[in-house]
Amino acid sequence: MKRILLVVAYEGTKYSGWQIQPNALTVEQVLNEELSKLLNEHIEVIGASRTDAGVHAMGNVCVFDSETRIPAEKICYALNRSLPEDVVIQESREVPKNFHPRKCDCTKTYEYKIWNADFVQPFNRKYTYFVYHELNAEKMQEAAQALVGTHDFTSFCSIHATVPDHVRTIYSCDVIREDHLITIRIKGNGFLYNMVRIIAGSLIKVGLGEKDTDFIEEALGKLNREAAGPTAPALGLTLVKIQYPEEILTIDNNSDEEK
Amino acid sequence: MKRILLVVAYEGTKYSGWQIQPNALTVEQVLNEELSKLLNEHIEVIGASRTDAGVHAMGNVCVFDSETRIPAEKICYALNRSLPEDVVIQESREVPKNFHPRKCDCTKTYEYKIWNADFVQPFNRKYTYFVYHELNAEKMQEAAQALVGTHDFTSFCSIHATVPDHVRTIYSCDVIREDHLITIRIKGNGFLYNMVRIIAGSLIKVGLGEKDTDFIEEALGKLNREAAGPTAPALGLTLVKIQYPEEILTIDNNSDEEK
Fold it and tell me: Which of A154, B135, B138, B185 has the fewest CB atoms lying closer than 10 Å?
């Protein structure tokens, strides 16, 4: 038995998110079905990030256990042949048997993309949130700096969240404009339910001039979801990558405990 | 009667190109049908560039004549409400009655995009040509410089082309790598049938190391389609913009001839 890690990219448009649920198509279900067929075993993946309906990923992570004799690093090629074209495995590798993608320290990077122009762009309409009124990206960048550091993010967490601890650390949050495209790039040790989308919705309020640049800092202090802005639509959000310390992914071939 | 210009963006994936043809969905047909419904007149657009099946556009141009009393610059908003989501008008304006989008000097900019990685990216799979083997973008850039200037591009023109004159002027051709994405950006006064795709296919041969950096210069000199590389797939190609001199687009309100 070995534990295999997959790096999974997907266009979330037609999926009801990552997590398996009745009567809806999810990325987890597609992976379980195709892996079970490919390896001729019953496979259930454990995902790192249960992205919401319509959210995209360039590098979500999951693991599964298998008796297969196919070399771990070849599984991505075999699996990509049977997956739908909007789900593509970017990497497969063997990891220690005790590695759990939700129970380790990691750094997650998300991007929220906004198309700020007079008209929608047909190319990126599925990956960007279209905002017609002009946004001031400099003010958004200024406001976003209040997020950096370790804070209680209750104001930026859906009221439907179930985790009790709302303290997270944000390493950086940058708002970059390239012509009509505004990218909010945020890196942290973890994110609460809807957190990046509420941050994006709040920064948009600042960009529109409806709120001042101290809006984010004030909202953080109030520990109340109503103090922050609205939840921006899912289609603008992409989970870019999840980075784990390399040592916890590496198999120690000299250790019996890994066998 | 006034002549109205549209700047048209489209994702070409599901269209059999621009030009109307029997038993196939084309961008021209969609525009004629929706404009005729909107303006309650029989409308036939004249396109600037008859892009091929699967080719995309951020800024193709067309004109049509109409008796409408809707202000020209409002037509884009009204038309976008009825167009499919993969065709979006970016601008509408009145132009002189004698302006013809194929019979004026203009500068056209195309981009050919290549995704050069181990795996396809689900986000841009419809807009980039996937190349697995590593491409040397610096060598492609070096080779591409032979295209700049005024040349007979017979070697880079489909044998199915019907125009007799194969002389065109290329103002610039640059090959830019950003991580896994390679963009060939080319600007010229006109392009022959399949010309950008043959240039892309030839530069890819150089990037793979199958041809030296003087391949493009040598192929140009031979005036023979067989001397150049293959035609790269349509999905990587985007017509970025068509620029006309502003004076030929501007209506002289003091002149009776325009009335």
Answer: B138
Paired tokens of B93: 């304006």
pLDDT per residue over B131-161, tens digit each?
Answer: 999 999 999 999 999 999 999 999 999 998 8
pTM of the model: 0.91
Q: Considering only A36-45, B81-90, B199-208, B247-256, which range has the smallest mean pLDDT? A: B247-256
Summarize pLDDT for B54-93 with one digit per residue, the tens. 999 999 999 999 999 999 999 999 999 999 999 999 999 9
d(CA B76, CA B93): 9
User: Residues A52, A65, A118, A214: which is the catalytic one?
Assistant: A52
Distances from the Cα of A20 to the Cα of A27, A62, A76, B173, B202, angstroms = 8, 14, 21, 48, 46
pLDDT at B255: 58
Among A9, A119, A121, beta carbon nearest to B122:
A9
CA pseudo-torsion sign B11, B16, B19, B22: negative
Option in A56, A88, A119 nearest B120 (CB) = A88
The string of DSSP codes covering B49-87 is: --PPTT-EEEEEEEEEEE---S-GGGHHHHHHHHS-TTE
Q: Which residue in chain A has the smallest CA separation from B55?
A: A123
